[in-house]
Design brief:
alpha/beta; 2 domains; five-stranded parallel sheet; Arc Repressor Mutant, subunit A; four-stranded antiparallel sheet
Length: about 230
Amino acid sequence: MATVLVVDDDPGLRALLAEYLSGRGLEVQLAADGREALARLRAGAVDLCVLDLMMPGMDGFELLGIVRREPALAGLPVLMLTARGEDTDRIVGLELGADDYLAKPFNPRELLARIKAILRRSQAPASEEAVLEGAGIRVDPSRREVRVDGQPVELTTTEFDILRVLVASAGRVVARERLMELARGEEWASFERGVDVHISHLRRKLGDDPRVPRRIKTVRGVGYMVPT
């Protein structure tokens, strides 16, 4: 049973989500603010965090930044909740390393579907898929590990899935539509800039020069590619 931490300062929403998600096979923990959430995350045993952005004190942006900087938490899947679903909030959240977003008000059934999709990717059983290499990048799908020039790199679930496809297709262009499906499914088309944000984040983590990227190249009007 996967454990989901719901972080929101609205007690009514916390109670609603706890009842709904726990009734559908998930273990649910609750936190009313960023500091309480951070303590629970550091205690371990959380598989995914549903994170409200607008909270008093330590807001969701600050908490997400801390999570992505701590090695023990860096790979934790995070689904962020935005008050209005505006592009600015979504872009900032994705740049900080969120795996997905959902705008309030939302349908609990959609939230559950998003959670399950992320958990399927992050908890996929190890396979015998071969290690992939290209442009100095080594991707081990079985261990979900990435190394660049021999050095380990921590990626989010979505970043790993995007990079795995790019390296597996080294030397060939991967269409943006394909990456959109990996990032969030078909509905991602409504927010195409999200793919660009994930690619930008990947480039920084891989040590690419943003002016002349050599690991992930843009093919204008088509998509992205990793050289052989």
